Amino acid sequence: MIRQLLQYKFTLIISALILAICVAYVFRSESVFSESENRYLAGRPGMTLSGLADGSFMEAFELYVKEQLPARDGLIRLKALAEQAQLKNENNGIIRGRDGYLFEKLIRTNSQLDRNEAAIVRFVKDTDREVNICIIPNSFEIMTDKLPKAFPNISEEERISDLYDKLSGMKNVHTINMYDGLKAHKDEYIYYRTDHHWTTFGAYYGYLRLCDEMGLEPVDIGSLESIKKEADGFFGTFYSKYRGAGIKPDILTYYDIAVKGYRAGAQVHDSIYDTAKLDTYDKYAMFMYGNEGLSLVDSADDITDAAGNKGGIYGKTPRRKELVVFKDSYANCLIPYLTYDYDRLIVVDLRYYPDPVSGLLKEHPDADILLIYNFMHYNEDNHFYRLTS
Amino acid sequence: MVFSSLLFLFWFIPIFFIVYYLVPGKIKNPVLFLGSIIFYGWGEPKYLILLLVSITVNWLAGILIGRFRGRADKAVLICAIVFDIGMLFFFKYINFFIENINAVSGASIGKVNITLPLGISFYTFQIMSYVIDLYRGKVEVEKSFINLGTYLCMFPQLIAGPIVVYSNVSQGLKERHIGLPDVEEGLKIFTLGLASKVLIANNAGALWKELEEIGYANLSSPLAWLGMLAYTLQIYFDFNGYSMMAIGLGRMLGFEFPKNFNLPYTSLSITEYWRRWHMTLSGWFRDYLYIPLGGNRVGKGRMVFNLFVVWFATGFWHGADWNFILWGLYFFVLLMIERSGFKGFLLRHKAAARVYSLLAIGFGWMLFAISDLKQLGLYLSRLFTGGMSSEVLFYIRNYGFILILGCILSSGIGNKIYAGIKDKAAVCIPLLIAIFILCVAYLADASFNPFLYFRF
User: Fold this and answer.
1) First vs last C-alpha separation in chain A
2) How far is it, in rounded angstroms, from Cα B224 to Cα A105?
3) Partner residue opposite B444 with nearest CB, options A13, A75, A86
4) Do the beta carbons of residue B165 and residue B227 sit within 8 Å?
5) Measured in whole angstroms, how far is the alpha carbon of residue A198 from the centre of its chain?
6) 3-state class of A170 per DSSP?
7) In chain A, which among 136-195 make CB contacts under 8 A with chain B?
8) Helix (H, G, I), strand (E, B) or coil at A309
9) Residue (of B31, B36, B88) closest to B57 by Cα position
10) One digit per residue, pLDDT tens: chain B, 456 residues?
11) Of B301, B80, B254, B83, nearest in space to B154 by CA
12) Inter-residue contact A200 to A237 (CB < 8 Å)
C-alpha cells in the first residue's frame, strides 16, 4: 500500500501541503496585527444562524481565510517577486521608478473628487472669513526625473487648477500653489521613496510657500540643525504594497521642536513627536502622534531679547495668535514649523471630527484658517462634506 | 464558492475529499450531493431551493415518463421542458423583456427584483438533457433522487460547466472505480487549470479592467488593440481553466467529463472555431435544438432558419442583453459566409485564414465584453482612430510577458511541451508543485480574481 502510494508523488506532496495548511488554519494562533500593512487582520468569525442566513458569516469567513493564510507574508512577497521576474515595474498599483523611487498609479480621478471640490467651494462661500487653501501635489508630480519611461498617470495639476479657478472669483480665499516651490528642489530628498508622504524637507519647502502667501516670517531651517534627528530603516506604505526586491529603506528626519503643550484628542503630551513610533513599522505616525480628530498645539514661549523686544522663540516678529488647520497626514510633519508663527494651532482631521466645523470656528473668531491636503486625499476622502455640515 | 479561492483549496478540498474517500461506495453519492449543496449554498443559500425544486420536478418527470411510456410520455416531457425553460426565462431573462417591452411600448412595467441564480444556465441545460434523452430512450429512468441530485449538483461542473449531459455520467453515478492513477491525473489537470485561471487569465484580464478604468474615449489605437488581445486571452484561459479544474476534480471523484476546449485559437475558420470552443455547449445545441429542428436534412431555406435559431439561442444563452444576441448572430453571419464558398478560399490560404479567424474571434469578443452598444462603438472606433500615445509602452512592459505567454500557450505549444515532460517525473512534478505554490501566492495577494460566468 505505502509503496503503491509512493508512486503517486504529486498526489502525495500536494495532499500533504493542502492538509498542512488546513491543519495550520485550525490550530495555529491567529496573527492579529500585520505590521507591514499597518492594520488588524480579520479573525475567525463566530457562526450564527442569522449570519448563515444572510451570508455575512460566509463573507467574514472568506476574509478570515484570506487574511490568516499560513505564510501569507512570504507568499505575498513571492507574488511580488514573480511580478518583477516578468519585467513588470508595477505591483498592486505601485509603480517603480528610478533610484528606488516608488509612485502610486493614478489613471483616472475618483468620482469623489467632484464632490470634494464642491464641498470646499461651498465652505468658502458660506464663511465670511479669509480661508487659505492648498492642495499638495504627490511625489510623481514633482519628482519627474525619477519616473519610469511611459508613466501612465494623469496630471494632478489640472485638477488642482480647476479647484483654484472655481475659487478665484471669491474675495475671501487665498489659493496656494506648491508646484514651483517644490519643483525647484526636485533633486533633493523632498518625498519619501517608499512612502506616500513628503519628507520633513519637502514639508519645509511647502511651509516656505505658506509663509510667502500668508505673510508669515519663516523659521530658517539652518537654525534647526542642532535639533535635527534621524531614524533609518523606514519602509512606508508604498513598499507594503509593492514588496519587490531591491528597494532601500527611507530615512525619516525630524527637528525636535519643543512646544509648551500638545493635546491630541483626549491625550496630553509634552512633545508633538511620538518617538516610540520610530521603533515600529509605521514610523511616520511619530509626527503629531498620528491623526486625531482635534488636536491643540501650544507653541513654546516667546523670547524677550536683551533690548526688551518680544518675538518668536528665535527672536522674530511677534507671532500671530491662532491658526485653525484642516488637514490630512501630510501636514503632520509641516505643523511643527508653524509653531514659530502662531501661539496656538488648532488642528482638525475631518475623518475623525464629527462635530460641526462652524461651531469650532466660532470658538476661535480671530484665528486664521488653512485647508491643506495632499491630492490623493482630496481625490478620495469622503469627509469633506463635514466642512459645511 | 469558486475553485480559484483559498477557501476552496484549503478548506473545501481537504475536508470534502477525506470524507468522500473514507466512506464506502454506497454512501459516496449522498456525500457528493451534500458536499455540492454546501459548495453551492455557500455563496447562494437562497437559490439552493431553486436547484432542489429543479431536481425534484425533473426527477418526478423522469419517473412519470417511465410509467406512461408510449402513452403520455410526450406530455410529461413537454411539461418538464416548459418548467425548465420557464425557470430559466423567469430568473434570467424576465427583466430584459420587461425593459424592452417598456422601451418599445412606452409602458412602465416594474422590474422584478431578482439576481441571476449562479449556474442556472448550466444546470438547466444539464437536467434537460436527462428528460429529453429519457424520452428518446437513450437513458433509463433514474429512480434515485440522490443519484439524479448528485448528477445535477456535482460541484465540479455545477456553476461554470462543462455541460455534462446525463448520458455521459449515468454509468458512473451507479458504479465507479476511483484509482490512485485517476486521483494523480485529476490533481494534475486541476493544477494546470488553476494556473490557467489564476496566473494567466487574471493577469491578462487586469489589463482589460484597466482600460475600462481609463475610459474607452481615452484609448490610443495600440492600447485598444492590446486590450482586445488581453480580453481574448483572458476569456479563453479563464473558461478553459475552469473546465480543466472541473475535469480534474471530476476525475478525482471517479468521473470522466468531456473535454470542453480544444485549442480554439488555432482554428483556420469560424466553423472550425466553434468545433473547438466550449464544445459541450455547441454539442448541446446540436443535439437538443438543431437536430430536433430538422438539422441539415431539410430544405436550404429551413436549414438557414435552423442555424439562425441556434446562433440566436447561443448568443442569448450567454447573457440577457442585446450585445450577446448580436454576438451570436455575428457568428451566424460569418458561418453562412463560410458555408457559401469562403471556406474553400480559407483552405487554400492558410496564413490568411489564421489572420481572418483570429481577427473575427477578437472582434467577436469585443461584442461579448462590452454590453453598452454606445461604448462598444466607441471602443471599435478607437481601434482605428485612436492615434498613437507613448503610454502604451507602459502597458507593453507590464503585460507583455503575460500576453506573449498566453499567445504561446493558446497556440498549442504548451500542450506539446506538457505531453513531452508528462512522464518525466523528475521534471514534471517539481514544475507542477512550483506552479501550484505560485497560484497560492497570487491568490494570497489577489486584488483581481473575477468570476466571469455570473451572467451565463
Assistant:
1) 74
2) 20
3) A75
4) no
5) 9
6) coil
7) 148-152
8) coil
9) B88
10) 889 999 999 999 999 999 999 999 889 999 999 999 999 988 878 889 999 999 999 999 999 998 888 888 889 999 999 999 999 999 999 999 998 999 888 888 888 888 888 889 999 999 999 999 999 999 999 999 999 999 999 999 888 879 999 998 988 998 888 989 999 999 999 999 999 999 999 999 999 999 999 999 999 999 999 999 999 999 999 999 999 999 999 999 999 999 999 999 999 999 999 999 999 999 999 999 999 998 888 888 899 999 999 999 999 999 899 999 999 999 999 999 999 888 888 889 899 999 999 999 999 999 999 999 999 999 999 999 988 888 899 999 999 999 999 999 999 898 898 888 888 888 899 999 999 999 999 999 976 677 776 666
11) B254
12) no
Which three three-digit cell numbers place residue B283?
A: 454539442
Residue tagged 423522469 (cell numbers): B62
The neighbouring-strand residues paired with A320 are A342
CB contact under 8 A, B45 and A21: no
- Distance CA(A207)–CA(A337), nearest Å, equals 7
Contact flag A65-B441 (C-beta cutoff 8 Å): no
Instruction: Dig out the grid coordinates for B76 from the structure.
Output: 410529461
B349 is catalytic: no
d(CA B358, CA B333): 16
What Å distances lie between residue B236 and A337, B205, B229, B265, B409, CA to CA?
58, 11, 11, 9, 11
A307 shares contact with chain B (CB less than 8 Å):
no
Signed CA dihedral, B113, B114, B115, B121: sign only = negative
Question: Roughly how many angstroms between the first and final C-alpha of chain B, as a whole number?
Answer: 16
| Extended strands (E) in A15-137 | 33-34, 39-40, 90-91, 94-96, 102-104, 131-136
Give residues with Cβ within 8 angstroms of A52, minimum separation 6.
A58, B45
Residues of A in contact with B441 (CB under 8 A): 75-76, 78-79, 82
Rounded Cα distance between A36 and A239, Å, is 9
